[in-house]
């Protein structure tokens, strides 16, 4: 009798993950699934495709919990995995005679499912809602959005909770919602009808994307390189054309992947960094996003080209460029009207550099003033799209006012800034580097360069300051200033930076 009960039980379990012979022919195959039920369409769809089946009595039992074994069989069929040549995952409670063995083995080999710490898989254990979310994300290789990429409506879903991030991935894609507006019930059992709805929604909701694996590129590891310097690329919106997400499997060294999700039509760039035998390398791609049959499609074209690069410099607010004349350092004219523009911030400007080399740029401002800049553009050692640039503005002399240097700070000691007391030049032979003169009774210094070097100056009175809003600020104490004199291709520049100590308690 006991043997007979086991046989009947196995038959029932098998049927739950396998088709009935009448399913495909009957549009309403289960007598307990009314066409008026919200899950009927999903259940009938999967049944018609012979992905799910019912029980021997012709029912589907939509309210029953789905087991881990049933889930494995259903998902293996949906993914069309090869379940004939599988490696035994070694779960202590899943024998080769188990009706779900081949599906479980196939999913385990694909790193979609795993077992418990004690070596069991628990094929007859009910699947919890959080567990099923993680299974779906892995099985359908959904975008691995980070936890804080999505506004979280659920009080019972937190970042470091098992399955929490995957729950929000399904929520973001519109695949699932909670059991109430503010609860997901992550540990509640998922029913067979709920599972059917989630699976069919996932098929329809998975965004089109391209996945690049580390091993496909011959890399030991892979990462998305942050590319700066592009004239046509605002760093704050560099992924506007497509979104890139890094994800990894059990072994980040071999399972690292980058998911690329197209967002709108256009052409962009992508630089992927990696390691080959402990040597860092970069592969560059043009990214093309086009609509094909109404759906965005993303393609990659590898390239070794370099792109026009922004040589960036800062100017005072309100100064507008009229024209830029670009020459090589030996005086050969490159462009009498070179490209220029604003880069990210109103005071940050750029000059377009199309080829590596050493340049002198003469910038004419609308007020009639000319300012020269030395520019060095080198082919990057890391293989990125943009040249490595250095820019030095011609400024052989400077008036530096300690008090006004704190304009824009949240707060500072105004009294100390206006009265720094005596100043002491700490650098020997400072007079060989620059002439430093101070207006009596003020913190205004007149500095004229003589040769390359640095001069450290200490103030009698320290100046306390805070930069940023309270709660998210940095504070410190300035004890003096450093004068830097630099030279590049005959262009001389004087600049001043404070000597400071950061408050470690902030």
UniProtKB/TrEMBL annotation:
Keyword Electron transport attached: no
InterPro entries: Cell_Envelope_Struct_Comp (IPR051465), SLH_dom (IPR001119)
Residues in the signal sequence: 1-24
Pfam annotation, one family: SLH
SLH domain sequence ranges: 26-89, 91-150
Keywords assigned: Signal
Protein name per Swiss-Prot or TrEMBL: S-layer homology domain-containing protein
């Amino acid at each position: 009798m006991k043997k007979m009960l086991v046989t009947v039980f196995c038959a029932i379990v098998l049927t739950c993950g396998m088709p009935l012979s009448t399913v495909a022919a009957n549009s309403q195959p289960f007598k307990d699934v009314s066409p008026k039920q919200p899950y009927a369409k999903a259940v009938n769809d999967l049944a018609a495709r012979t992905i799910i089946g019912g029980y021997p009595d012709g029912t589907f039992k939509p309210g029953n919990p789905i087991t881990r074994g049933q889930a494995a069989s259903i998902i293996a069929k949906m993914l069309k995995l090869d379940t004939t040549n599988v490696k035994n995952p070694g779960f202590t409670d899943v024998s080769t005679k188990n009706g779900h063995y081949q599906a479980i083995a196939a999913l385990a080999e694909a790193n979609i499912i795993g077992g418990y710490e004690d070596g069991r898989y628990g094929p007859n254990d009910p699947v919890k809602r959080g567990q099923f979310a993680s299974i779906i994300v892995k099985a359908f290789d959904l975008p691995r959005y980070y936890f804080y990429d999505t506004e979280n409506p659920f009080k019972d879903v937190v970042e470091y909770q098992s399955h929490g991030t995957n729950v929000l991935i399904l929520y973001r894609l519109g695949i699932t919602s909670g059991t109430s507006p503010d609860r997901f019930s992550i540990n509640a059992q998922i029913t067979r009808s709920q599972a059917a709805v989630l699976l069919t929604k996932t098929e329809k909701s998975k965004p089109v994307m391209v996945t690049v694996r580390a091993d496909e590129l011959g890399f030991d590891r892979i990462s998305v390189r942050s590319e700066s310097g592009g004239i046509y690329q605002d760093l704050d919106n560099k992924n506007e054309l497509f979104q890139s997400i890094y994800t990894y499997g059990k072994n980040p060294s071999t399972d690292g992947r980058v998911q690329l999700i197209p967002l709108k039509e256009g052409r962009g760039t992508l630089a992927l960094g990696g390691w080959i035998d402990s040597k860092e390398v970069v592969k560059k791609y043009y990214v093309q996003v086009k609509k094909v049959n109404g759906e965005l499609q993303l393609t990659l074209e590898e390239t070794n080209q370099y792109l026009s690069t922004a040589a960036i410099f800062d100017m005072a607010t309100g100064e507008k460029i009229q024209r830029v004349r670009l020459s090589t350092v030996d005086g050969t004219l490159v462009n009498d009207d070179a490209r220029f523009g604003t880069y990210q911030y109103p005071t940050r400007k750029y000059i377009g550099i199309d080829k590596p080399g050493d340049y002198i740029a003469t910038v004419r401002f609308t007020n009639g003033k000319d300012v020269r800049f030395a520019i060095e553009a080198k082919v990057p050692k890391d293989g990125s799209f943009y040249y490595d640039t250095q820019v030095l503005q011609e400024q052989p002399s400077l008036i530096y006012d300690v008090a006004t240097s704190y304009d824009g700070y949240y707060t500072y000691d105004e009294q100390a800034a206006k009265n720094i007391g005596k100043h002491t030049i700490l650098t020997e032979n400072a007079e060989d580097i620059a002439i430093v003169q101070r207006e009596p009774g003020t913190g205004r210094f007149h500095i004229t360069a003589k040769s390359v070097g640095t001069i450290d100056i200490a103030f009698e009175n320290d100046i306390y300051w805070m930069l940023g809003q309270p709660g998210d600020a940095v504070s410190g104490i300035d004890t003096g200033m450093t004068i830097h004199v630099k030279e590049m291709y005959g262009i001389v520049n004087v600049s001043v930076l404070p000597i400071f100590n950061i408050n470690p308690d902030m």
